[in-house]
């Protein structure tokens, strides 16, 4: 009987881990964002004639199976926020909903800047913006300060996607060191 209980427990834990990723205990008992992950779209401001914004990203994410329900609403976009090249801030899914943006870290808020800031995949800047615009960085800093206050997060709780997974996102032209200094020093 004890053996059976142990087997059931192993299968249950294994199943949760597979469904929710390596940090499944936190995901299971979600109590607000554990941190923030910064992404880029790895596209230009327009793709095939369409402006890349939260609505366009939601369509792409719907096709990738990221859709999920939260309090009676279905959200397709995996990010919580999108920042356009002109600095406009758009809402994705609600802060209190699990994200779909970083494997194993979807209890973090996901913020995505439109652009391709990676010198490998966008070497000559064919996709614009090829680095975050001053307007995007200003919106990002102010959003991060608000979220850090609201959820009691520290500058070290803010990560680039590439720090948490095998990806170049948000690209080597994203000024992470400068951002960290600004957040730590209030600059
Ligand atoms: Zn990313």
Short description:
The chain is α/β, with parallel strands linked by helices and 187 residues long. The chain contains 5 helices and 9 strands, in the order H-H-E-E-E-H-E-E-E-E-E-H-E-H.
Structural class: alpha/beta
Give me the Rg, rounded.
18 Å
Distance N terminus to C terminus? 62 Å
Can you identify the CATH superfamily of the largest domain? Peptidoglycan recognition protein-like
Q: Biggest β-sheet, characterized?
A: 5 strands, mixed
| Associated small molecules | zinc ion
What is the domain tally?
2
Order of helices and strands: HHEEEHEEEEEHEH
Question: Per the principal axes of the C-alpha atoms, what is the gross shape?
Answer: globular
The proportion of strand residues reads 15-25%
Task: Please tell me the overall pLDDT.
Answer: 92
CATH architecture classification of the largest domain = 3-Layer(aba) Sandwich
CATH class of the largest domain: Alpha Beta
As laid out across the biggest beta sheet, the strand order is 7-6-8-1-9
- Helix count? 5
Uncertain regions spanning at least 5 consecutive residues? none
* Percent in helix: 25-40%
**Total number of strands:** 9
CATH topology of the largest domain: Lysozyme-like
């Amino acid at each position: 009987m004890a053996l059976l209980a142990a087997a059931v427990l192993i299968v249950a834990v294994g199943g949760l881990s597979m469904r929710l990723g390596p940090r499944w205990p936190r995901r299971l008992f979600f109590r607000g964002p554990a941190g923030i992950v910064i992404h880029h779209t790895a596209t230009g401001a327009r793709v095939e004639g369409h402006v890349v914004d939260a609505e366009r990203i939601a369509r792409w994410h719907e096709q990738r199976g990221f859709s999920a329900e939260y309090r009676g609403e279905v959200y397709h976009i995996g990010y919580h926020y999108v920042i356009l090249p002109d600095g406009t801030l758009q809402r994705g899914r609600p802060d209190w909903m699990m994200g779909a943006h970083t494997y194993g870290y979807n209890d973090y808020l996901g913020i995505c800047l439109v652009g391709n800031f990676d010198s490998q995949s966008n070497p000559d800047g064919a996709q614009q913006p090829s680095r975050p615009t001053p307007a995007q960085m200003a919106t990002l800093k102010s959003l991060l300060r608000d979220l850090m206050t609201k959820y009691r997060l520290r500058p070290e709780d803010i990560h680039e996607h590439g720090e948490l997974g095998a990806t170049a996102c948000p690209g080597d032209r994203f000024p992470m060191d400068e951002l960290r200094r600004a957040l730590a020093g209030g600059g």
